[in-house]
Write a structure and sequence with these properties.
By secondary structure, the protein is of the alpha+beta class. 50% of the residues lie in helices and 19% in strands. Strands 7-6-11-10-9-8 form a 6-stranded antiparallel β-sheet, sandwiched between helices. The protein has a 5-stranded antiparallel β-sheet with strand order 2-1-5-4-3, with helices on both faces. A 5-stranded mixed β-sheet has the order 13-15-16-18-17. A hairpin with a 5-residue loop joins β1 (115-120) and β2 (126-130). The chain is elongated, with a radius of gyration of 49 Å.
């Protein structure tokens, strides 16, 4: 058997899959496209047909309103009465002139009303017309009037008819090819008869012709299913079948059907029982829809994905064992030490897999021991960071208590001692469950600290609190604020001295506010301030177990990094001789869950 190279196998497989998938896509694209857009196209056709129907209904309503106006016009009745009684040509001329003036008075254009036929029921059926030829009068007498008499309604739409040769000019000078009419009876006292208004049908045909912009076949049917308008003699619709298979749309005035061969719609007009029927063939839906181009792109993309997936399956079929081993080795290189290879063969690849699994197992054990040791060291270090208390603070506080005791200020001794107890108690809570505390508790510790310092440095400094009330329930990493206050007092205000070496004092401003994601804590003093070099010095990373000036700043930075990772920041701005501002920007949280593990990376 002739050997085939691995690359040749891949190429031949790709070509075969490409031909099969591409042929399948060519077959199903038209069907899928039609299924995707048929409902949208049906809605679009019905909306467009509704607009056309409303314009036609407006024309028909105008004719109906004009006929109703004539049937109730008192002046017209008086002139009809005069004509009936006198049969005088002058009265007849006056009646025709009055009818012509009514057309212009009511702003009914001549192309909308071509002529008016009024008869007086009685002996001889006396008639009077305006704008109608003799042949058209005979057509009314022979066709329209008998049709009206045969039906029971008081009004009737006259089926559109063609003008005979040389009769397409109306009395008002316009040229038309088709006309239709509206018949309405009237009755007043002893005078009765009917009014027939003849109007141009060309405008309605023109309005309906707008449907050709959206579909290939349409027609207008009368109530008797007579075809009034149809632009395509070669594409006759089966009206009975169309009426039966359609279903109602958004209203009872419209129906539609989505069939395999195309989309059918029906729009019922509110006048005369007329109906607009449309048909858009399946090919027209696919060819004319704008979204079809995008659908083709989607299908091409799907085709590409299918080819890629198929190629991946084929490649994996030949190289799966080695691929699995490479994937698991890569997983271990990224830190997933639980990665293992599922060995299913007993060949050399299987031996490599067994050796890999053994190596991964031993490596995982070693890493777990290292991680546990590191976690323990981190917890111990955090506990030392958070529990650091300046021994000078305790020494000075005890001196203050001694001084107050010597002065017999017992109540003040109690206050200072209680404040120091609160501070020490807060500092010594170093378990994981006490990593966070509410801002209210942190401010309370600050106040206890400042209580002690006010006894020590009477009338030297003031403190101004600007804290939004709803921030008090926020939770922050504990012991973040008090060290900053201690720095502001010790290295800011107390270093600001006069020429005699006496502290000038100053003010510490504590401002806390929040936005949607962070809580902002600003500690500002108006002490001696710092140069930019000094700011950079205290901003450098802290060495292991370092102690000294501004240790509180570095302590806080270390704890912020341990707890919040990269989600929090500290900013220091200072100006020599004007003071310093330290700003903490911490993630906003309102729950009392204090586990370090819940801080997002």
């Amino acid at each position: 058997m002739k050997k085939i190279l691995f690359s040749t196998k891949l190429l031949l497989s790709q070509i075969a899959i490409f031909i099969i998938v591409y042929g399948a896509i060519l077959l199903i694209i038209p069907e899928i496209m039609y299924d995707l857009v048929d409902q949208t196209e049906a809605t679009r056709i019905m909306r467009y047909t509704e607009q056309v129907a409303m314009r036609i209904e407006q024309r028909l309503n105008e004719i109906e309103r004009f006929s109703e106006f004539l049937s109730n016009d008192e002046a017209l009745y008086r002139k009809l009465k005069a004509v009936e009684e006198s049969r005088n040509p002058g009265e007849e001329a006056s009646l025709r002139l009055y009818l012509s003036n009514l057309i212009q008075k009511d702003a009914v254009s001549s192309y909308k009303v071509l002529g008016i036929y009024v008869d007086i029921e009685g002996s001889g059926y006396y008639t009077n017309t305006v704008g109608l030829s003799d042949d058209l009068k005979r057509y009314i007498d022979e066709e329209i009037s008998p049709a009206y008499e045969a039906q029971e309604s008081e009004a009737l739409y006259v089926t559109p008819f063609n003008y005979r040769d040389k009769e397409s000019n109306s009395l008002f000078g316009n040229t038309f090819t088709r006309a239709f009419g509206f018949v309405r009876s009237y009755s007043r006292d002893d005078l009765s008869g009917k009014i027939i208004i003849i109007s141009s049908f060309d405008e309605i045909q023109y309005i309906a012709g707008n449907l050709s912009d959206i579909c290939e076949d349409y027609t207008l049917l009368s109530s008797a299913q007579e075809e009034l308008i149809s632009p395509k003699d070669s594409a006759k619709m089966d009206y009975t079948h169309t009426l039966q298979k359609t279903k109602y749309g958004d209203s009872y005035w419209e129906r539609y059907a989505i069939e395999y061969d195309g989309i059918y719609t029906i729009r019922y007009l509110k006048n005369g029982g007329w109906k607009l029927l449309t048909y858009m063939g399946k090919d027209e839906v696919v060819a004319n829809n704008v979204a079809s181009q995008y659908n083709i792109l989607i299908f091409v993309a799907v085709f590409g994905v299918i080819v890629i997936i198929a190629m991946i399956v084929i490649v994996k079929r030949f190289t799966r064992p080695l691929s699995d081993l490479a994937i698991q080795m890569k997983a271990i290189s990224t830190g997933d030490f639980k990665a293992r290879v599922h060995v299913i063969s007993g060949d050399e690849i299987g031996m490599v897999g067994d050796a890999f699994n053994l190596m991964a197992e031993r490596l995982e054990d070693s890493i777990e021991k290292i991680v546990e040791k590191e976690k323990l060291e981190q917890r111990m270090r955090y506990g030392l960071l958070i529990s650091q208390v300046d021994p000078h603070f305790i020494y000075n506080t005890m001196n203050t208590i001694t001084y107050l005791a010597q002065k017999n200020r017992v109540n003040d001794v109690i206050v200072v001692n209680k404040a120091m107890i609160e501070i020490l108690k807060d500092r010594l809570r170093i378990e994981d469950s006490d990593v966070f505390d509410s801002l209210k508790q942190e401010i309370n510790v600050v106040k206890q600290y400042l209580t002690i310092q006010k006894y020590r440095y009477e009338d030297i400094f003031k403190v101004k609190y600007e804290i939004e009330e709803d921030c008090m329930q926020c939770y922050i990493a504990k012991n973040m604020i008090q060290p900053l206050i201690e720095n502001a007092l010790s290295h800011g205000l107390l270093q600001n001295k006069d020429e005699n070496g006496e502290p000038l004092g100053g003010c510490i401003r504590i401002r806390v506010y929040k936005d949607q994601k962070f809580i902002h804590i600003n500690i500002t003093d108006n002490g001696v301030g710092m140069t930019q070099e000094e700011v950079e010095e205290i901003s450098r990373p802290m060495k292991h177990w370092e102690r000294g000036v501004h240790i509180g700043i570095r302590n806080i930075r270390e704890r912020m990094k341990y707890i919040y990772h990269e989600n929090a920041s500290m900013e220091i701005s200072s100006r020599k001789g004007f003071g310093t501002t330290v700003s903490l920007i911490l993630p906003l949280r309102f729950d009392d869950s204090n586990s370090i593990k819940e801080i997002p990376d």
